[in-house]
């Protein structure tokens, strides 16, 4: 027997509808070179529809991909709504990827139009022969686009919007229609794409506003520092609009002082950003020769990797600000868990509470989580057994986009996260290791396998193993262990890697050893390397 | 282009999974004749699966309807999960309906098994020939079932559970599978059924935990007084289990003092119940010869009709307790709006805040609302124009179950609520009238049209119009305006009505008038009657 409820699809346009109808007076505030720009949700809605019209004028059809290569600003936020609401697909391209990877994913995603910050035009000029189907570029700026050597039409965003009307009748879409794409760096090879749907984005946004999660609330003010160019700024653009909250955006290429000026002006109560950005702000506060007013802040959500308890303590003790964490990834929209103090810990003294707050959190509603050993046998939730964390949820990907590597990650209806963890009896995840050979440096993935393979391609290298070492600034940095078969210097090996990889991938430290320790099945035993050398 | 996310259905079993895995230690507390019964979610989960096994033993198959005729207790809550999770349909039958309507809906819904409180057996004995396909009855009690004249198998609930095992592998279901049914009284004729789905219940439960809504939170304790036998106790059983909150249930046939004892023992922070129950508790507090400890309570959610501002003020001024309201109905699972003080009213003095809190609230996420005039033309949200409120949401019904009357209520993809309202520019609904001829007395619907038709069937009556009059206890009571064509007394008319309708339908007041005023198109002008006589 079927239920007899309305077949109302879960659609991103319903988030926009609510912000406009209930919260038209609330603001989106963006830092710009010439000060802070304030726009209300009422203005925002009109501009979103102008952008949809402009994209239609450029020939964008339902299902077409629209790429963005842009910072966290209000225009980028307009694209977050205009593109999916018209039935097209918002492909956010990570600004920090090396140019060749940007070229790869523009072509792999079949982007038709690109929305780019003016500072990104030189990158595209360098990729002129790798732009695939791109037929036009909109430049996100107040001004006319700068001179460019590109032969494609390059159009100013404001001029394009000014030429259009504010009305656009967004279609009703099947909720499984693609809404967005984002590429994530894998253990090896090209980045892999994830295709989000209206359903997944809507459910994820709804869950951001629940208790025991971020609890996005229209009475709070949210500063979104996590890149909108990657992992959907943790879903906060959709969550904040759905709940009608004030949004504060740090604008183009912010540095330490810019974050603090944005906090002083926008007076956010909540901040979401990478652990490394939180540390950068902390250092700026500590060493600045002027004092900064961060008194509006109540909560810092720091992620990308687990925030150290020392950071949590510093913010709490010096500014009364709570640092919270969650766990997730590109494949999961990204949020899977959130760490709060559940009621059974309500009376803990502060020192003991940090042990709980240092965990990765409890699964959100509609997130199913399990620990499995190498044979796929489920492990108990007793705080002692560990296993690879696998997850299932309506907002987790079922595959990578057109990518043969999907089968190793998506199996039996589960996503295998590659993270090794324990679960407490009350459902808190505690990560202990990674099964995949990835290093997370400054919030960005570095593939140890790719580095090892290229090191071993050097004629003087017999074996090479790369592992993560703790780093005070980047949290992790790669260290290379090398067994040589001919004379070679550290500088030569670094140059060899720099020719192929982004410079931040290149290890700061090379250790020459006699042999790489091996596991029972002959694999490099990186656990031993980490234990003995790092 | 389609999204490539997991096809994970929205299912009620995911709510249970979360309560068991994360909140196994939290409690469900039920008032019983012999004291308060405490069960943990861990125990609850095992009992839910035992019940599913017991129902399978009784022959229940996917899609079969399981009726409940029961009070708010933990066993009823077990049925809320066991029945839909096994793929069957939970048909909650309103305890307060007249017996003949109970007989009608048991047959109309094709109930196969009934779960009933021991005090309900006499009702079923009186309906012995109107039990349709019912093949067995489970009696929700600690004890063996009492003697009965029913010839069906009548089985004790605890004995049935004890005979089964705690394991049951709940199937993965299409999210549009029917999960529940509830019948609502209409303007005329038999009650009309609504069929909820796993999708609608899950989304509704999720939304109960969001900011700007009830905000169900595991750190709070919820006393559910709204009948679980009607309108899903406002969805709170599903919402509280999803979020892992402590549940406090008032048990079988509670009276004023029972509510207060339950508050003292269960120490709820939140209470949901009918406005009339809230008023009853207030009167008990005012007139009791002992003092009661209601200090645990922070919020009373009173509904069924709008709580008077005088009630809000009494609770706030005497106990510091906030009274909140929402708007919804059986057809909408039921919640459509919730009234909180949005940030723009944050600084209002208390007196002005009551004007806002007296509204019916803002639409929840995923609820689309519009005002339309008689021609279906949408009216502006300016706080001045009024219109019938129509709604659209994934948790609103698309039709009544097997009922020819559906077409007048469900049109063009909208549910026409029958309520007349205004919308403020910031999206607050203010109800002003009802387009349907219904009177809401003590939280129960009374059909004025049915009363009028039967009055006019009396040989002495020429015309009759029934309207609602304000009442201090029941909030509304029917008043009959009668034009006679022969001598008749009030007592005769009351007896005439009592022969056909439940006694609470019979007007307390009959007014004999010369003619019923008419509208331009010749209909009874009830607005005029209300204005001049009530």
From TrEMBL, chains A, B:
Entry keyword Flavoprotein: no
Keyword vocabulary terms for this entry: Ligase
InterPro entries membership: AMP-bd_C (IPR025110), AMP-bd_C_sf (IPR045851), AMP-binding_CS (IPR020845), AMP-dep_synth/lig_dom (IPR000873), ANL_N_sf (IPR042099), ATP-dep_AMP-bd_enzyme (IPR050237)
Molecular function as annotated in GO: ligase activity, forming carbon-sulfur bonds
SUPFAM superfamilies xref list: Acetyl-CoA synthetase-like
Residues in AMP-binding enzyme C-terminal domain copies: 451-523
Record-annotated AMP-dependent synthetase/ligase domain positions: 24-401
Family: Belongs to the ATP-dependent AMP-binding enzyme family.
Protein's UniProt name: Long-chain-fatty-acid--CoA ligase
Lineage per the UniProt record: Bacteria, Bacillati, Actinomycetota, Actinomycetes, Micrococcales
